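Entry, Tuesday afternoon. Goal for today is a structural model of the target with zinc ion bound, before we commit to ordering more compound. Inputs were pasted exactly as handed over by J.K., no edits. I checked the ligand SMILES twice against the vendor sheet because last time a stereocentre got dropped in transcription.
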Amino acid sequence: MRPTRFCAALALLGLLAAGCPRPEPARISTGAYAERAGTVQSNQASRRNNGSAAVLRGRVVLYHLWAEDAGSSWTAARQADVQDRVRAAIGFLTRWARTYGIDLTFVEEAAGRVRSASDLPTDMFADPIWTERLVQSTGAADSSRLVADLKRRHKADEVLLVIHVNKAADSYNLAFRAGVHPAYAAERIVCFSRYPDQRPTCAASYAHEILHAFGAGELYFPFDRTDERAKRAGHLFPNDILFRVDLNLDALNIGPWTAYRIGWTDHLDADLRALEDEN
Ligand SMILES: [Zn+2]
Protein backbone atom coordinates (compact mmCIF):
# COMPACT_ATOMS: atom_id res chain seq x y z
CA MET A 1 0.00 0.00 0.00
CA ARG A 2 1.40 3.37 -0.94
CA PRO A 3 1.33 5.85 1.97
CA THR A 4 0.36 8.96 0.04
CA ARG A 5 0.35 11.35 2.95
CA PHE A 6 3.79 10.32 4.13
CA CYS A 7 5.27 10.51 0.67
CA ALA A 8 3.81 13.96 0.09
CA ALA A 9 5.40 15.27 3.27
CA LEU A 10 8.72 13.72 2.39
CA ALA A 11 8.70 15.07 -1.14
CA LEU A 12 7.86 18.56 0.09
CA LEU A 13 10.68 18.82 2.56
CA GLY A 14 13.07 16.18 1.34
CA LEU A 15 13.10 15.22 4.96
CA LEU A 16 13.15 11.81 6.45
CA ALA A 17 12.29 10.87 9.96
CA ALA A 18 13.57 7.62 11.33
CA GLY A 19 12.10 5.81 14.27
CA CYS A 20 13.64 3.94 17.07
CA PRO A 21 13.37 0.32 18.10
CA ARG A 22 11.74 -0.51 21.42
CA PRO A 23 13.06 -3.01 23.90
CA GLU A 24 11.96 -6.55 23.28
CA PRO A 25 9.29 -7.86 23.13
CA ALA A 26 7.48 -4.79 21.86
CA ARG A 27 9.83 -4.15 18.95
CA ILE A 28 8.13 -3.03 15.78
CA SER A 29 8.32 -5.44 12.91
CA THR A 30 10.59 -4.07 10.25
CA GLY A 31 7.96 -4.91 7.68
CA ALA A 32 5.57 -2.29 9.05
CA TYR A 33 8.18 0.43 8.67
CA ALA A 34 9.17 -0.69 5.22
CA GLU A 35 5.58 -0.54 4.05
CA ARG A 36 5.03 2.93 5.46
CA ALA A 37 8.22 4.30 4.03
CA GLY A 38 7.76 3.10 0.47
CA THR A 39 11.05 3.23 -1.37
CA VAL A 40 12.64 5.82 0.90
CA GLN A 41 15.68 4.67 2.83
CA SER A 42 16.53 5.88 6.29
CA ASN A 43 20.17 5.23 6.35
CA GLN A 44 21.64 7.99 4.24
CA ALA A 45 25.38 8.29 4.57
CA SER A 46 25.00 12.01 3.78
CA ARG A 47 23.75 12.48 7.33
CA ARG A 48 27.26 11.97 8.56
CA ASN A 49 29.05 15.16 9.65
CA ASN A 50 26.08 17.38 8.82
CA GLY A 51 23.90 19.96 10.54
CA SER A 52 24.06 21.46 14.05
CA ALA A 53 24.76 18.01 15.55
CA ALA A 54 27.53 17.09 13.14
CA VAL A 55 30.05 15.03 15.11
CA LEU A 56 29.56 13.74 18.64
CA ARG A 57 32.65 15.23 20.20
CA GLY A 58 33.78 18.33 22.01
CA ARG A 59 31.21 20.42 23.85
CA VAL A 60 27.67 19.40 22.98
CA VAL A 61 24.55 21.31 24.03
CA LEU A 62 21.30 19.42 24.52
CA TYR A 63 18.54 22.04 24.49
CA HIS A 64 15.37 20.59 26.00
CA LEU A 65 11.89 21.77 25.09
CA TRP A 66 9.12 20.29 27.22
CA ALA A 67 6.26 20.50 24.76
CA GLU A 68 2.63 20.63 25.85
CA ASP A 69 -0.67 20.96 24.02
CA ALA A 70 -4.35 21.12 24.97
CA GLY A 71 -4.38 17.40 25.71
CA SER A 72 -0.95 16.71 27.21
CA SER A 73 1.19 18.37 29.82
CA TRP A 74 4.12 17.58 32.09
CA THR A 75 4.07 16.96 35.81
CA ALA A 76 7.23 17.67 37.77
CA ALA A 77 7.53 13.96 38.60
CA ARG A 78 7.23 12.79 34.99
CA GLN A 79 9.69 15.42 33.88
CA ALA A 80 12.21 14.36 36.56
CA ASP A 81 11.82 10.75 35.48
CA VAL A 82 12.65 11.62 31.87
CA GLN A 83 15.60 13.76 33.00
CA ASP A 84 16.99 10.73 34.86
CA ARG A 85 16.77 8.65 31.68
CA VAL A 86 18.44 11.35 29.60
CA ARG A 87 21.27 11.56 32.17
CA ALA A 88 21.73 7.80 31.99
CA ALA A 89 21.91 8.12 28.19
CA ILE A 90 24.50 10.88 28.51
CA GLY A 91 26.52 8.70 30.87
CA PHE A 92 26.45 5.85 28.36
CA LEU A 93 27.57 8.10 25.50
CA THR A 94 30.41 9.75 27.41
CA ARG A 95 31.66 6.38 28.68
CA TRP A 96 31.78 5.00 25.16
CA ALA A 97 33.39 8.19 23.82
CA ARG A 98 36.21 7.63 26.31
CA THR A 99 36.79 4.10 25.07
CA TYR A 100 37.35 5.55 21.60
CA GLY A 101 39.64 8.26 23.02
CA ILE A 102 37.11 11.00 22.23
CA ASP A 103 36.72 14.13 24.32
CA LEU A 104 32.97 14.64 24.86
CA THR A 105 31.13 16.88 27.31
CA PHE A 106 27.40 17.44 27.37
CA VAL A 107 25.88 20.74 28.50
CA GLU A 108 22.14 20.84 29.14
CA GLU A 109 19.84 23.83 28.93
CA ALA A 110 16.04 23.88 28.96
CA ALA A 111 13.52 26.20 27.39
CA GLY A 112 11.09 25.00 30.03
CA ARG A 113 7.56 24.01 29.21
CA VAL A 114 6.43 25.22 25.82
CA ARG A 115 2.78 25.28 24.90
CA SER A 116 1.86 24.40 21.32
CA ALA A 117 -1.26 26.05 19.89
CA SER A 118 -1.94 22.96 17.78
CA ASP A 119 -1.99 19.31 18.77
CA LEU A 120 1.46 17.76 19.05
CA PRO A 121 1.55 14.98 16.45
CA THR A 122 2.66 11.48 17.40
CA ASP A 123 3.17 10.41 13.79
CA MET A 124 6.84 10.58 12.85
CA PHE A 125 5.89 11.39 9.28
CA ALA A 126 3.79 14.43 10.19
CA ASP A 127 5.03 17.65 8.58
CA PRO A 128 7.87 18.65 10.97
CA ILE A 129 7.06 22.34 10.61
CA TRP A 130 5.38 22.02 14.02
CA THR A 131 8.82 21.61 15.60
CA GLU A 132 9.91 24.91 14.08
CA ARG A 133 6.80 26.65 15.39
CA LEU A 134 7.47 25.19 18.81
CA VAL A 135 11.00 26.63 18.81
CA GLN A 136 9.64 30.02 17.80
CA SER A 137 7.10 29.97 20.61
CA THR A 138 10.03 30.06 23.06
CA GLY A 139 10.78 33.57 21.76
CA ALA A 140 13.61 32.49 19.44
CA ALA A 141 13.48 34.04 15.96
CA ASP A 142 14.03 30.61 14.43
CA SER A 143 15.92 27.42 15.19
CA SER A 144 19.07 28.43 13.28
CA ARG A 145 19.45 31.59 15.33
CA LEU A 146 18.69 29.65 18.51
CA VAL A 147 21.50 27.23 17.66
CA ALA A 148 23.93 30.09 16.94
CA ASP A 149 23.03 31.71 20.25
CA LEU A 150 23.49 28.46 22.20
CA LYS A 151 26.84 27.81 20.54
CA ARG A 152 28.06 31.28 21.43
CA ARG A 153 26.82 31.27 25.03
CA HIS A 154 28.10 27.80 25.84
CA LYS A 155 31.22 27.96 23.65
CA ALA A 156 29.84 24.76 22.19
CA ASP A 157 30.83 22.80 19.12
CA GLU A 158 27.47 21.11 18.54
CA VAL A 159 23.82 21.70 19.42
CA LEU A 160 20.90 19.28 19.45
CA LEU A 161 17.31 20.32 20.16
CA VAL A 162 15.46 17.72 22.21
CA ILE A 163 11.67 18.00 22.06
CA HIS A 164 9.94 16.04 24.81
CA VAL A 165 6.28 15.12 24.40
CA ASN A 166 4.34 13.47 27.22
CA LYS A 167 2.48 11.04 24.98
CA ALA A 168 2.78 7.38 24.02
CA ALA A 169 4.47 6.97 20.63
CA ASP A 170 7.74 5.94 19.01
CA SER A 171 10.46 8.55 19.38
CA TYR A 172 12.26 9.69 16.24
CA ASN A 173 14.90 12.00 14.88
CA LEU A 174 14.93 14.76 12.30
CA ALA A 175 18.57 14.48 11.30
CA PHE A 176 19.78 16.88 8.63
CA ARG A 177 21.23 15.64 5.37
CA ALA A 178 21.78 16.68 1.76
CA GLY A 179 18.58 17.86 0.11
CA VAL A 180 16.75 18.75 3.33
CA HIS A 181 15.38 22.27 3.78
CA PRO A 182 18.03 24.44 5.50
CA ALA A 183 15.61 25.27 8.34
CA TYR A 184 16.27 21.76 9.59
CA ALA A 185 20.04 22.17 9.80
CA ALA A 186 19.20 22.89 13.45
CA GLU A 187 18.88 19.21 14.24
CA ARG A 188 16.24 17.90 16.59
CA ILE A 189 14.90 14.71 18.07
CA VAL A 190 11.33 14.14 19.21
CA CYS A 191 11.17 12.01 22.34
CA PHE A 192 7.89 10.63 23.63
CA SER A 193 7.78 9.76 27.32
CA ARG A 194 6.24 6.35 26.65
CA TYR A 195 6.25 3.71 23.93
CA PRO A 196 2.92 3.02 22.19
CA ASP A 197 2.37 0.16 24.67
CA GLN A 198 2.60 2.70 27.55
CA ARG A 199 5.90 1.49 28.97
CA PRO A 200 8.25 4.39 29.78
CA THR A 201 10.74 5.19 27.02
CA CYS A 202 14.01 3.72 28.25
CA ALA A 203 17.37 5.45 28.59
CA ALA A 204 18.76 3.46 25.67
CA SER A 205 16.16 4.99 23.35
CA TYR A 206 17.29 8.50 24.31
CA ALA A 207 20.91 7.55 23.59
CA HIS A 208 19.81 5.91 20.32
CA GLU A 209 18.01 9.04 19.12
CA ILE A 210 20.87 11.34 20.13
CA LEU A 211 23.23 9.15 18.08
CA HIS A 212 20.91 9.36 15.07
CA ALA A 213 21.05 13.15 15.18
CA PHE A 214 24.84 12.92 14.98
CA GLY A 215 24.69 10.77 11.87
CA ALA A 216 24.23 7.21 13.10
CA GLY A 217 22.02 5.03 10.91
CA GLU A 218 19.67 2.23 11.86
CA LEU A 219 21.49 -1.06 12.07
CA TYR A 220 18.25 -2.99 11.78
CA PHE A 221 17.55 -1.35 8.38
CA PRO A 222 13.80 -0.87 8.80
CA PHE A 223 13.42 0.72 5.37
CA ASP A 224 15.11 -2.00 3.36
CA ARG A 225 13.02 -4.23 1.12
CA THR A 226 15.02 -7.29 2.12
CA ASP A 227 16.52 -8.36 5.44
CA GLU A 228 19.97 -8.85 3.97
CA ARG A 229 21.66 -5.88 5.66
CA ALA A 230 19.75 -6.33 8.93
CA LYS A 231 20.94 -9.93 9.13
CA ARG A 232 24.49 -8.93 8.41
CA ALA A 233 24.41 -6.14 11.01
CA GLY A 234 22.79 -8.46 13.57
CA HIS A 235 25.63 -10.89 13.08
CA LEU A 236 28.33 -8.22 13.31
CA PHE A 237 26.81 -5.94 15.96
CA PRO A 238 24.13 -7.81 17.96
CA ASN A 239 24.41 -5.40 20.91
CA ASP A 240 25.04 -2.13 19.11
CA ILE A 241 22.58 0.47 20.39
CA LEU A 242 21.65 1.27 16.78
CA PHE A 243 20.70 -2.36 16.24
CA ARG A 244 18.58 -2.77 19.34
CA VAL A 245 17.72 -1.07 22.61
CA ASP A 246 17.56 -2.71 26.01
CA LEU A 247 16.32 -1.77 29.47
CA ASN A 248 19.85 -2.54 30.64
CA LEU A 249 22.17 0.04 29.06
CA ASP A 250 25.19 -1.98 30.13
CA ALA A 251 24.16 -4.74 27.73
CA LEU A 252 24.66 -2.37 24.79
CA ASN A 253 27.65 -0.88 23.03
CA ILE A 254 28.73 1.46 20.24
CA GLY A 255 30.41 -0.55 17.50
CA PRO A 256 32.82 0.59 14.77
CA TRP A 257 30.17 1.35 12.15
CA THR A 258 28.19 3.61 14.48
CA ALA A 259 31.46 5.16 15.73
CA TYR A 260 32.36 6.00 12.14
CA ARG A 261 28.97 7.55 11.46
CA ILE A 262 29.14 9.87 14.48
CA GLY A 263 32.69 11.03 13.81
CA TRP A 264 34.58 8.98 16.40
CA THR A 265 36.66 7.32 13.70
CA ASP A 266 37.42 8.32 10.13
CA HIS A 267 38.05 4.84 8.94
CA LEU A 268 35.47 2.36 7.75
CA ASP A 269 36.58 -1.18 7.00
CA ALA A 270 35.82 -2.29 3.48
CA ASP A 271 33.50 -5.04 4.71
CA LEU A 272 31.37 -2.44 6.54
CA ARG A 273 30.92 -0.24 3.49
CA ALA A 274 28.13 -2.52 2.34
CA LEU A 275 26.09 -1.16 5.25
CA GLU A 276 26.22 2.34 3.75
CA ASP A 277 23.54 3.49 1.34
CA GLU A 278 25.95 5.70 -0.55
CA ASN A 279 29.48 4.55 -1.06
ZN1 LIG B 1 16.48 4.46 15.28
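Residues 18-20, 208, 212, 218 surround zinc ion (CB under 6 Å).
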